[in-house]
Amino acid sequence: AKETSSCSYIIFDNKNSLSNDSHVAIESDLINAIRRNEFELFYQPRIDILSGKIIGAEGLIRWRHPEKGLIYPDLFIPTAERTGLIVPIGYWVIQQAGEDIQRLQASGLEIKRLSINLSFRQFQDSYLCRTIQRLIEKYAIDTSILEFELTESALFNNELHVREGIEELHKLGINFSLDDFGTGYSSFSLLQKLPISSLKIDRSFVSGIHNNNPDDREIVKALIRLALSLNKEIIAEGVETAQQLSFLASFGCHQAQGYLYSKPVPFAEFKDLLQHGYQL
Ligand code: C2E
Ligand code: CA
Ligand code: CA
Ligand code: CA
What we know:
The chain is of the alpha/beta class. Helix content is 45%, strand content 19%. Helix 5 (86-106) runs parallel beside helix 6 (128-138) and helix 10 packs across helix 11. The protein is globular, with a radius of gyration of 19 Å. Ligand C2E binds at residues 44, 60-61, 72-74, 77, 86, 93, 116-117, 119, 179-180, 203, 237-240, 257-259, 264. Residues 23-278 form the EAL domain. It comes from Amphritea atlantica.
């Protein structure tokens, strides 16, 4: 009953709930998933390129559907965003990440960063900061470890509104990173003003390194240079090959994330990777 009451301010889009497209999650299914606690947070390691050590992870949501099996976020996050269900789902993610940070610390495993994705839509919830503050207190979440990933479009869409939210959350000690860097329209002056500590180069450019795409290689170089000159941490996502890694390393990219090291894995497996390392 608690979940229902905390979701009561959400306005549902009834027209689309009648859609019968089996490839796209529908709201009634998603509401059930929230009630039945069917979500899981997987983790993909983030590696410090110089030392080769795992410094943390990105949390990525999955939906363990009782009949359909494991459902990837691309199939239900858009519906969750459209209907506002991303708000309660987003709180679940934060709470789960907080619990998992605690579990790692209890096992004596050190991580520097654990990031989760925050939708632009979540800033439309006027209780965002208060709710996150309550979660932080309830689960004693170490905010210096917590990082919220925001996409360029989220950041530069509704400037003032989102900006105020970011400032407020930053005061709680939360770090921010810019996701899918290079795909949107970053205003460099805004990038400087906002408390964003790291930039994540979008996978599309990283895959271009491998295909010897000269444009993508130049873009990656430029993005790394830009991040370094702005004094931001730079992370390459979607690193799949040793060739991509050495290219990134040669231009001073700090961190890498991708199938080369590990796919996103359940918490227990991530813990294992932290304890025993990954296999290249
Ligand atoms: P994203 O934030 O850009 O996450 C990176 C995606 O790239 C993940 O897909 C990850 O599994 C995938 N990936 C990582 N390394 C590689 C690689 O080397 N090669 C390839 N081909 N793919 C790689 P995933 O987990 O399916 O997530 C898709 C998107 O769903 C995410 O993109 C993010 O935008 C969204 N998402 C995931 N979890 C959440 C969440 O908790 N909240 C919100 N709002 N969005 C989420
Ligand atoms: Ca992300
Ligand atoms: Ca990304
Ligand atoms: Ca992406």
